[in-house]
Amino acid sequence: KEEIFGWCWYGGVATEDKVSFSYARSSGPGGQNVNKVNTKVDLRFKVSEADWLEDKVKEKLKELHGNKINKEGELCLQAQTHRTQEANKKEALEKLNQYIEEAKVEKKERIPTVVPEWAKEQRIKEKKRRSEYKSSRKVERP
User: Fold this and answer.
1) Residue 20 and residue 88: Cα distance in Å, rounded?
2) Rg (Cα) of the chain, in Å, rounded?
3) In sequence order, which residues have a C-beta less than 8 Å from that of residue 104 and are 6 or more positions away?
4) Distance, CA of 15 to CA of 30 (rounded, Å)
5) Terminal-to-terminal C-alpha distance of the chain
6) Coil, strand or helix: which one is 9?
7) Which DSSP symbol is given to 68?
8) CA of 127: how far to CAs of 117, 121, 124, in Å?
9) pLDDT, one tens digit for every residue, the chain (142 residues)
């Protein structure tokens, strides 16, 4: 297992934060290369120790991707689509940054629409007109 400092782009400012990577053999593309080179990247990111993230962003990250967070509070990501370790490492960091960007977006509060009185009256008039039209089609039976 290798510990490095990865560059995480957040809000246009690069901050150095501890991200741990581990490598394994990938099941992705690569032919015979797959059997001998560790190209799969497992990224682990401690959400609680990221002091450069706001608390509400951390909470939203835990809410959105709680199934990817283990008991130690680490967000675990995997990347194995590329043939090289560097490309998979880059993809894992991009995925992490994408998750952080998703957590930054605040949900807009819904403002309920107010239906004007004239629209309510018009709707009721139209219902009555339609009802009368349909009832006029009925044939009285003896």
Assistant:
1) 14
2) 28
3) 11, 57, 60
4) 33
5) 91
6) strand
7) G
8) 15, 10, 5
9) 343 444 444 443 334 456 788 888 877 566 677 777 888 889 888 888 877 788 888 899 889 998 999 998 888 999 988 888 888 888 888 888 888 888 888 888 999 999 999 999 999 999 999 999 999 888 877 7
